[in-house]
Design goal:
globular, Phosphatase 2c, domain 1, five-stranded antiparallel sheet, alpha+beta
């Protein structure tokens, strides 16, 4: 199986800076998006630290004389790197970041997430959300305390229940997937999904255009819908 990838990150129309970050290594089959949070530049530091640590560890998978590193180990190491950095500086106290990552190995893939950055798969023209948001409203929906319409109107939509770096330990969700030729994966920060509905994202992903312009169209659509947050969109396509 062969893979191609592209990504775009954008400040959006309302935020003074971009605290999102992404990483791509087609060679090693590693793709990830992070959405930082924290005062001053703390969110930007947290997301870039997470990307750097995850890429460093996962790119050693299968390297000579290197022990294999799995997704859970990489997430734990990235979490500790951010947490330790925050402990050393009062200005960075409480900083953290979401994470969504896709690791591919021939026809197998592992998608992992912490927080509300999302991972999707488009197969045969149908979009499926693979990850589950770690957010207050999503947990209330799952427990039957709130329906989808109430969740969309909730003033607590931005409250996440898990993040990298805010605690000394964090538990990621990990989903194992079988890949088919033609599968298209979308990793994105909530700056995309808060502006665009899943049906609209699906219709855009169905367009027969190269990956980079497709990323640009998704980001432009989110900005046209308000651009209230930083927007990051990363696409990965599988081909035989």
């Amino acid at each position: 199986m062969h893979y191609a990838a592209a990504a775009v990150t954008d400040r959006g129309l309302k935020r003074p800076s971009n605290e999102d970050a992404f990483g791509i290594s087609v060679e090693h089959g590693i793709f990830l998006v992070c959405d930082g949070m924290g005062g001053a530049a703390a969110g930007e530091i947290a997301s870039s630290l997470a990307v750097r640590e995850m890429m460093r560890l996962l790119c050693t998978r299968g390297a000579a004389n290197q022990p294999p590193v799995d997704a859970e180990q990489a997430v734990a190491a990235a979490n500790m790197a951010i947490y330790s950095r925050a402990q050393r500086s009062q200005k960075l106290s409480g900083m953290g970041t979401t994470l969504v990552a896709l690791l591919v190995e021939d026809r197998r893939a592992w998608m992992t997430n912490v927080g509300d950055s999302r991972g999707y798969r488009l197969r045969d023209g149908r979009l499926q959300q693979i990850t589950v948001d770690h957010s207050l409203v999503e947990e209330q929906v799952r427990m039957g305390q709130m329906d989808r319409q109430e969740a969309e109107r909730s003033p607590f939509k931005n409250v996440i229940t898990r993040a990298l770096g805010t605690q000394s330990c964090v538990t990621p969700d990990i989903f194992e997937l079988e890949i088919e030729p033609g599968d298209l994966f979308l990793l994105c920060s909530d700056g995309l999904t808060r502006e665009l509905s899943d049906p609209l994202i699906e219709s855009l992903l169905r367009l027969d255009v190269p990956l980079q312009p497709l990323c640009e169209r998704l980001v432009a659509a989110a900005n046209n819908a308000g651009g209230h947050d930083n927007i990051t969109c990363l696409l990965v396509r599988a081909a035989a």
